[in-house]
Amino acid sequence: MSAILAMTAVVLDNLFGEPRRFHPLVGFGRLANALETRWNSSQTRQGTGARFQGALAVLLLTVPPTALAACLASIPTLGPAFAVLALYAALGLRSLGEHAQAVQDALAAGDLVEARRRVGYMVSRDTGDMNAGDVARAAVESVLENGNDAVFGTLFWFMVAGAPGAVLYRLANTLDAMWGYKSERFFHFGWAAARLDDVLNYVPARLTALTYVVLGNARTAWSCWCSQAGGWESPNAGPVMAAGAGALRLSLGGPARYRGEWHARPALGLGPRPGDEDIARAVALVRRGGWLWLALWFAGGVLDA
């Protein structure tokens, strides 16, 4: 049953993409911003007090929606429909492809200014002085990493815990994207959001990396995963990015500027730097992975029947 619900949600995402008028995650982000502005003042950003405030904020923002999702999903007549809609809202496969395609189109047209603007919707790093190669690299990295966050991780937690699992995962993932920085502002307040996301992503990230290995250049992807993932700052993004770079036989990583400061990131992958055509290759890898997961899910359901 869960595989049918997941397939329905993926088809809806493929047909319609993310909701245009009001996306639940956009509304959630606004609420999170308002709470963070109120609780994380410049006078309360240090020590255990700030961590407690951040942890309490995470609980207030994630527990009620997850509990509500559990209640609605348990209703016999409406539960399955709610589960489909919840997963549809949590998925971002078509949206990821659309953002990536916009960057690729701008690069192909030689419009570097537009390409920088478009990739700025996908990444948190500074894009104003990127050259075409930097833009392509940022887009490919974003597709690979968000393949885990917006597709595979969401499907995993829907598989494990239904609609409440998908809701909790995407809310935690959103909070980590907003607060999970080691800047002065978020070093303590965002600690709980970052740790929750690390826990929820531990298994999905490695399954995502394995998916990239299976569907890409397997030998290179596995080698890069084993030798390079540990050098990446994030314990979950490391396997995903290293395996994805190897699967595509591209060189990713390297220095990037965030909020005016350069960060020396290790190199990932093997091969040439990505060009605009490699953005589509990354999207295709994620899409194939999504369909593979659904096929295996259905096969598992048939064997259990």
From TrEMBL:
<dbReference type="InterPro" id="IPR004485">
    <property type="entry name" value="Cobalamin_biosynth_CobD/CbiB"/>
</dbReference>
<keyword id="KW-0169">Cobalamin biosynthesis</keyword>
<dbReference type="Pfam" id="PF03186">
    <property type="entry name" value="CobD_Cbib"/>
</dbReference>
<comment type="function">
    <text>Converts cobyric acid to cobinamide by the addition of aminopropanol on the F carboxylic group.</text>
</comment>
<keyword id="KW-1003">Cell membrane</keyword>
<comment type="pathway">
    <text>Cofactor biosynthesis; adenosylcobalamin biosynthesis.</text>
</comment>
<keyword id="KW-0812">Transmembrane</keyword>
<keyword id="KW-0472">Membrane</keyword>
<protein>
    <recommendedName>
        <fullName>Cobalamin biosynthesis protein CobD</fullName>
    </recommendedName>
</protein>
<keyword id="KW-1133">Transmembrane helix</keyword>
<comment type="similarity">
    <text>Belongs to the CobD/CbiB family.</text>
</comment>
